[in-house]
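Quick one: structure for this chain?
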Amino acid sequence: METRAANHVAAEEHRCDLAKSSRMKKARSVDFGRFLRSSLRNPADSSTVVASAFSQRAARDNFSN
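Got it. Here's what it folds into:
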């Protein structure tokens, strides 16, 4: 009986972790979009900004995984 309860608690914690991870990924995506839009308002250096943004995102994603 205790094992079943422990498994239930572990499963619930796992679901919470997955939901938190999903929310964090969505927030990162929104932040990245905002960054790109604000950076592209100045077209003089937009190509370097986009390249920098993509490299920063790739580095962050590789670090978090």
